[in-house]
## 1
Amino acid sequence: MAKTRNRVIFHVDMDHFFTAVEEREHPEYTDNPVVVGADPRAGKGRGVVSTCNYEARKYGIRSAMPITRAWRRCPHAVYLPVNYDLYEKVSSRIMTILRRFAGKFEQWGLDEAFLDVTSKVHDLEEAKRLAQEIKRKIYAKEKLTCSIGIGSNKLVAKIASDFNKPDGLTVVEENDVKSFLSPLPVEKLLWVGKKTKRKLNALGIKTIGDLANFDASTLIDKFGVMGRQMHLSAKGIDRSEIQEQWEIKSMSRDTTFDEDTSDTKLLLKTLNALAEDVHKQLTESNFNFKTITIKIRYENFETHSHSKTLPFMTDRLVDIQKTVGNLMQVYLQPDRKVRLIGLKLSNLVSSEKQKKLI
């Protein structure tokens, strides 16, 4: 095969990462449905499914599903709390492996990454062998499987990685992009969520091929700039680069109470704990922030958020706690019970960059 002039992009996606790590740590869970997320408390728990394994998915359980619904579908599953410390350690080791194979590297969350390997291979056959070596290396070091998609851009590579899970490897040659994408459901595109899917379906657009063949000007009229982006994506066009230094835009924490509460002391104590948690991430990542947002959800699911932008950049815990305390005052109503509270730090700037500006 002749040397390719196209980019060669890998999307590496760990298979049901959280539950796979739990099964590795607890072999007795193997072959059982496993759900990582909130505690179902005999079907009365709060929160959602974070990840589930393929055995659990046979019962219709999916990520982001309310934990109570998961319990009703499969009460005999193994339900586990999220162990972020463990997952982050495993993720860090996997990402270290992946970086060694990449010309350019971009991590997405704990379990996904894009690799530009254009400078590492001469053709797609060599790219396939490199992907197989990555899979072998990860399994040898961590006893975990991953699925890899190979394409000429990030869009195609990401869709390809999901095409043959688990433990899959899918190569999409440049000439095959249209035939690969066309029959897939339109929601396989990254920007098409449930609401957008319904709007597209109403226009008779069910597949990516339908979207690619639809009139672009009509899409722009109905969806604005996003209509243009969706149309290009449906044609397999994506010129976005691998971003080696992925910019963190915000840091957030929230918690759902086991029982709705109007206890002011408990609410403020919980907010302080969330503040300490997010402050730890802030300082470990060497960031300063300027904007704080709190979120509150009442027992009837009515949700509010309120933000304050400080007149200065800071990384001090006291600034977080004082601001969230002030923002929270308006929502502390003795006759209204709270289901969830959370906080977010945004307008983040690297403390190193901040020092250079000063």
Note: Residues 1-181 form a domain with the Alpha-Beta Plaits fold (CATH 3.30.70.270).
## 2
Amino acid sequence: MNLLMTRLLLFLFFLPIIVIGQSFSEQLDKDYENYKESSIHNRRFKHKDILPLIKSLDVPFIVSKVGESLEGRAIYQVKIGTGATKVLLWSQMHGDEPTATMAIMDILNFFATNDELDSYKKTILDNLTLYFIPLLNPDGGEQFRRRTALNVDLNRDALRLQTPEGQLLKKIRSQTNADWGFNLHDQSRYNSVGNTNKTATISFLAPAYNYEKGINEIRKRAIQQIGLMNETLQAYMPNHVAKYNDDFEPRAFGDNIQKWGTSTILIESGGYKNDPEKQFIRKMNFIALLSAFEQIALKKYANNSLVGYEKLPFNGRYFHELLIRNVTIRKSGKPYILDIAFRRDELQFNKNKSFYYQSYISDLGDLSTYFGYDELDAAGYQIVPGKLYPKTIRSFKKFQKLNISEMHRQGYTDIKIKNLSNEQRKLALPIHLLSEYELFNPVFSLGSNPSFFLEKNGQKEYLVINGVIFKL
């Protein structure tokens, strides 16, 4: 037997040991692409996109239409498992917070697949009964907006129960008498882990059930379990986990469901660099939730201390999209050195299926305690305001024939184009495209969106367009 064959046999002999030695979360991370629902790849999916996926689920899933939204869209529950411990998960009660909905579809695929992780699935499903409500506010999801069709914040409707969606959630919680609840949301991408330079990619909360923020056995279990989930996530995104504001909100579902006897965990999905569609964060939800199911099934939380949760920093608000530090700006002929920060909004079109960015100055001054997804130390640079190209271009096709570098040389940063489409606005070009009716605004003030060059020693080296920095 030659040396190569000997090594091959040794590798095959030890391979099962290597696999068995991996933790559950490590195997989920490794095999994630096998479970990811490929038909959903961005955040602006609709009710009609996930409905066929839910309806196609077969044994061992039990799929039930449990109600309708105000506008008549069906709300479904997916049940799986036969265990005594009941776990209820609801996602997208705010229509523009879909990250966990994507993760739930991946989790359903996980349970529908037969593979080497079947022993974990058996442990979970023998000990737990899982109830998923993938899309609680389909009307809000249709418009990609926070509120319901009644224009009510569903997460502030736990007392009055004015909305059919709120009534349904209360009813399901009562019918299942769930032991555990997972309240799944998205939060601002500009939230930070405390006052650090890390974005709050995931924030947890064991909601308070009274103003005193008391800790009974129900809330204590949630706190213990969050400690385990934090440990799991730290392996994949170190220092990107925070704690959501724990003030008691008497109208909120999470706070009340905790009060009603269900150990409730809030998960807020925030921001992560180079992840605009939150696909990495989707995967983190997938790993965190499935790991939590296994931990709950085996009651691993029971001996966990409260310290892990208590040490988590609260959400801060210390992030911007772009932060330019120490730049010189002239005002009334005098130079001033300051920092300039941009954030951005998403402006929707195509029936809310697509969007383009609209940036704005979010802060000016001493921003030394703040951070940006993108940063530039512009010490020694001065701002040169951009100019509007003197002609309105008849079409985008005509615009494409222009020499943008030559326009930069002449100081032009903005240009008006007739019949400019929203799709064309999406393009990240080193020139700001305006419709023929838009006003050119070069003013540096809070809320404005000026275009400008950064010049050093008489040379224009950078260009800022719509809150994005380009190296010239």
Note: The radius of gyration is 26 Å.
## 3
Amino acid sequence: MLLSSVWLLGLPGDWLLDDFSLLQLDFPSLLRPRPLSYLSYWLNFQLCGAEPWAFRITNILLHALGVQFCYRALRRLLGDHRAFFAAAVFAVHPLQAEAVLYIFSRPVVLMGLFLWIALDRWLAGKYWVAVGCFALALAAKEEAVAFPLFLAALRYSTAGVKRQWKPIAAMFLLALAVGAGVTVATAKLAGSGAGTQAGISTLTYLATQPKVIGIYLQQAVFPMFLGFTLQPEVWPDSAALLWLLPIAGVLLAGTETLRKGWAFWALSAGLFLLPGSSVFPLSDLVAFRRMYLPLAFLAAAVPQLRAPWLVILIVAFTSVTAERSYSLYREPAALWRATLDLQPQELRPLLQYCKYITADAALQELLQRPMHAQKAGYQTELGRVFLDLQRPADALSAFGRALAIEPDKASNVYNRGVALSALGQNEAAILDFKRALTIDPTHQPAREALTKSRLPIP
């Protein structure tokens, strides 16, 4: 608990990225995916309102609880010293920042908490209690589907008792049901950024993930990156053959080799990476929050360390985490500036950085990077900045270019309507608001704009 308190240094930080979408949700929304996570968001709203510190401290407390159950569970398998090291790395490693301090990553932290509780209860012989905890983890985030694979591997490596198979089978059925539901939901939900809407083919995604996992491992050992998520170049489809190497290694290794501590825990880390780094494509090629659980298993693979090295490593990780929590997550502009400096060719850090600086400074940043001019997001941000600068004619041109690039996106039509309204062309603006609702009947800003104009909503 004491180690986890280092994350409190990032408590005053602002909303980031998808965090803003939480301000527009109609709570409680328990019928949507990840109902347990959204219930926790709703409780935050009820208790503290739209205060980012309240959401962030909930993430930190959930993480601290997860660390306690991580230690309890691993101690049953590894003994005190190795379990303490693994739990300490899980608690304070800088790679955990995206999961703990990024409010929208709460599903990862909540899922991790219930999976650690499930593992602890499983090792205590409370198998059906573990099944219930696994169901709660699935209700927090669907990536928990890897857990029954881990338990099956654990039973195989330790010659578990016979009655374990029925609860494992129940978990597999739950995982299959949730996996099927998520596949359907992401295909139907506009802008989900997953599955068929990831913007990348399954084979290309699979081919690029060996490189991505290499980035994860590099950051696990040498956490040098100071900004937000990196996005690497996409590898050719032929790189998917690299997945044959670990598969061949597992098949060729003897049973005794797989049962050795380091091999089992390294493979377990890979199992928990599978949902986000395998055949189900996601628009974010890299997301450090996917390492939230695998990091603990990688640390568990490390042989028992002598006390001086144990202390040195934990102090080093804690120091880097403290610096980043204080200097970056407290100041979103600094976070995105660091990311932009590392990846000047990427559009996302540019757009996010512009949201936290003055309109004049944002305009200069955008105009210095004309290589993004053919991207709708760039033109949309340019239009937003022009509106802030009271230049609606320039905003109309920028929103028009965004609409030409993505003509079937409701937000692009709506933005043009906003610029037309600012120019006093109200009739044309109303037509755009109606068209935006025709494209997406759930587009709330267009609906509100028509409500203000006291016109019937289509």
Note: The chain has two domains: 3-333, 358-452.
## 4
Amino acid sequence: MSETTPPIIEVDDLSMSYPLAHTRVDVLRGVNLCIQAGTRVAIAGPSGSGKTSLLLLFSGLERPSGGRVVIDSVDLGQLDSDGLADLRRDRVGIVFQSFHLLPSLNALDNVALPLQMAGRRDAREQARAMLTRVGLGSRLDHFPTQLSGGEQQRVAIARALVHRPRLLLADEPTGNLDDHTAESVRELLFELNRDLGTTLVLVTHDLDFAARCDRVLRLHDGQLHETAPSAVHSTLPGTGGDTTGTAPHAVPA
């Protein structure tokens, strides 16, 4: 990759706060970050540290209190709600922990929906191909209630990737799955990252998952710190809440 290639994510002095009674909670404080296209990045940290908020800012589903978010050379602060929706439709895929499938639609129609809303005539054809790609070619007509948790997550991943986004944001994609199913979803995400070239940014408490990424970022006290993937188990114990361990180094601006 050329050093002149612009990053897929660029964050400058990002802050986010919420009002609470007579005070203010600072979730993010002066965050700076660059992520190059095609990389796999894990964001870890204690529960409530703001990991999901950071993903929502990357997707344009939340607005920051200050600073700038640039996705694929587009400054999100310059877009209105329609422009942000267009950006997500064209360039960003999102996978949530709780799947968010429409119960009234079968797997094929759930995956085809984003393309249909974009006016794509080949929506069902592309959805069928992507579901086959994630191993659900025989489950096209099944509704969410007829699918296991792992199968529902695969449908959600297929829906997030059917428009071939440049960036995939995944919030605890294995959090509701048993160990065996979680491993299959991990392998699927990494395989699709390799095959499609989609940048993967995921929030996870799973240290094994994080250790297999190219970069690991820990969010603590409103700021990001980076640690080597090979050192994840020694430097990031207890990401579910424990903040002990050797402090990783700060992410450079």
Note: The chain has a mean pLDDT of 88.
